[in-house]
Amino acid sequence: MLARQCNSDAQTFRPTVLVHGGAGAIRDENVANARLGVKRAASKGYEALQQTGSVLDAVEEAVRLMEENPMFNAGYGSVLTWEGDVEMDASIMHGAHLEAGCVSLARDIMHPISLARLIMAKTPHLYMAGEGAMRLAAAQGFNILPKGALVTEKALKHLEMFKTNSNRTQGGQLYGPPGTVGAVAIDACGNVAAATSTGGLMGKLPGRIGDSSVLGAGTYADNESGAISATGHGETIMRFNVASRILTLVQHGNQTMQQATEHVLQQMTKRFNETAGAIAIDHRGQLGIYFTSRRMSWAYQQANELHSGIDAGEDVVEIVGEAPNV
Ligand code: ASP
Hints:
By secondary structure, this protein is an alpha+beta fold.
């Protein structure tokens, strides 16, 4: 049984679904669509939480919507390897018993996040990659798309530009157009979950795996501390163990989630001169949203409030349809 035991007395948390659509140099002309994409995903996740009461459903549904959206670097619209292919990483985790599923080098499926969940739910394993993972997906009825179906014109154009650009490290463009996606959620009983899905870094070598599918780096969830999804330079996020560090500060360092998120990302950027962002919910339901990159699109829904932002310090609030308690 995944969910924490929860009777009506224990329902003390405000159900929330918080998503991001990637850290980096989001171009001005993409700001409106990125915001729309994350707002829709947050609402979709919140709707799933209301309908099924499952934080796993909430984060999976939110991420699935963004995987379908070519605006983001996940599923359809993923960035391309140096050889022009899509290779995706994803992970999902539930904070009650620390169950998790991770997948790397996923190809030709729209929803790597659902494959990660399937690995969690239906195999004795936690992490699968490449050929074996794709055979599992096919055997379990995933729609295997024709080769190249996830490759967009935009991704091809960006790879071309990347290959001809001699200075690939400038202006946050090192890893191409931003757009890794992630979600974290908490239910009324304090169960948390996290999910992250990505096409990785543009122009990466085939076989490269980033932080998004690595627990403690790009994704983590523990009901005793909180849930995190990170985005940014994966090699650095893994080296700095970003998700674990943030949660440790919350659990043992007496910091709020916002303080811990800011502290760890600032430290990472200071030490490595690479940028990242993260969204987080702690075990009390407090949020952390921060990035050291130029921008990061994010949104969350809590009851009838839909918050969103892209630039530092921004928090636009809209009132959406009255939401009943979860
Ligand atoms: N963290 C992702 C990776 O390195 C990329 C990103 O978040 O933009 O694969």
